[in-house]
Amino acid sequence: MRTPLDAPRGPSVHARLVRRPLSSGDWPAGARPPGLPGPDLHVWRIDLSARRESGGGELLSPDERARAERLVSAKARARFRRARIALRCLLSEYLRVPPGELALAYGEHGKPRLVSARGGDGDGDAPPFFFNLSHSGGLALCAVGQLGEIGVDIERIRPLSYPGGLARDHLSPEERRLRSDWETEAARPEFFRIWARKESILKAAGLGLSRPLDRVDTIRGELDGRSWWLTDVFPGEGFAGAVACARRPASVRRWSWP
Description:
23% of the residues lie in helices and 23% in strands. The chain is α+β, with helices and mostly antiparallel strands and 258 residues long. The strands form 4 sheets. A 4-stranded mixed beta sheet has the order 4-5-1-11. Strands 6-10-9 form a 3-stranded antiparallel beta sheet.
């Protein structure tokens, strides 16, 4: 089956169902971004599983530090901080602004956006720049582009107590027809792939989980009558991921953040 990037150009595409995990070679290490994405979409995989803190907490805003402290477990707090520090470092490399000087704001449903940076101050001549971040378990994904709003989601594939019930509650009739064994554990990976696609579209639209998931059409890449370009990305064994974008990129380039 063709990948979304091989499919004919159009407002939306089918996300390919792939059952093999990516090898480490599919996410080569990148020391720094190669430049602004332009017509491409850049996706970075970030390892959050370090056993000790690596510093950088001073780069976080008071709001980010407060959000981290509200998390219950020390592991969750550490992973939240690492993801946000990596995000700031990535944006810093793209925009050539010190990471601590990036000002981020959050939409009604929690989507981050760049407000200003020293030397920028919302300059109307600045090129468009969009990004999104998601983390689950010990991995995070950051998507960066210039083609319009972006949403990215990563899900750790984990046991489900009621896989059939979750499929009935959250998948559309067309999505449920993709297979007949939603009640079985064998369906878990595909359930999480579809879930990641849904969340990526919702995040691109800036809606979080404010819409019922069964209203997000991952077959056509649509939400509330609007079409989104949509593709799967595969962070590694035991994870599912997806990216949605307002416009189809020329290519998707991937790296692992060091």
